[in-house]
Amino acid sequence: MKMNRRTLAATLAAVSMAAMLPGTALAQKKIVLGFSQVGAESEWRTANTESIKSAAKDAGIELKFSDAQQKQENQIKAIRAFIAQKVDVIAFSPVVASGWDTVLKEAKAAKIPVVLTDRAVDSKDTSLYVTFMGSDFTEEGRKAGRWLVEKMKDTKGDVNIVELQGTVGSAPAIDRKKGFEEVIKADPRFKIIRSQTGDFTRAKGKEVMEAFLKAEGKKINVLYAHNDDMAIGAIQAIEEAGLKPAKDITIISIDAVKGAFEAMIAGKLNVSVECSPLLGPQLMTAVKDIMAGKPVQKRIVTEEGIFPMEVAAKEFPKRKY
Length: 321
Ligand code: GZL
Fold this sequence. Notes:
Helices cover 43% and strands 18% of the residues. It is an alpha/beta fold.
């Protein structure tokens, strides 16, 4: 039966309308994204989770979300579950940099593309993931170091620094330490006299700072914390020791979350280096591009600034996390 032009056009229109109707056999199948999150250890992480969930909703992507409570074995289990559920794409923020090759090879064998967000993995085989989107943590450490060198340029004598490191083995902890030391090593006055992990949490940051104060007391000139949550915990310890945070001890931290702005406005924190958690929209764009067969950059770096306490009050109303 020969369809005339008018009938053909009407038929095509009807079929494409049917494809838009939800629930019909022709309805566009929703992209399913499996996401394994580090945990809920900090204000930064909470903002990151919120960004991912709201961006998935806005993008019409079905999100299967799992919280690993900062345990690598839980992330590996979640990734295996996503593979078994045959999701379209897997994304995750690796709690630590090592130990991912086996499970990433399983995802590759199942032909499920993987996106790294926030933190990197140290796998030599970069074919195991499509892209890594997140901050340059080494540069964040350099920014912290450069701010301190500038602040101390007119002081005489040693600058004794205590360091609260992030989660042991995590990319931010490794790289923020590396970048900071790269800058301060140019001047022998700068000495890191104590360095220990506070696991990115307020509670641990306070506990370790208490130990630093007990061991070194008034010898401490500077605290360098790898994130604001540990710095905020340390501020409590400094006050309980009868010292003035940001005056008796200069405090530098990273993330620039709301709590950091509140501490700077209260005059208790000197500076916070920005590390944006708002990766949700970029992640959903990458997921859609992957599903559409479009090329995706191997490395997507988030642009970030630095906020000294002097600008905190002016900047705070503009902050999005
Ligand atoms: C950095 C992120 C870090 C934050 C911490 O991108 O991985 O983890 O700096 C968070 O606050 O816990």
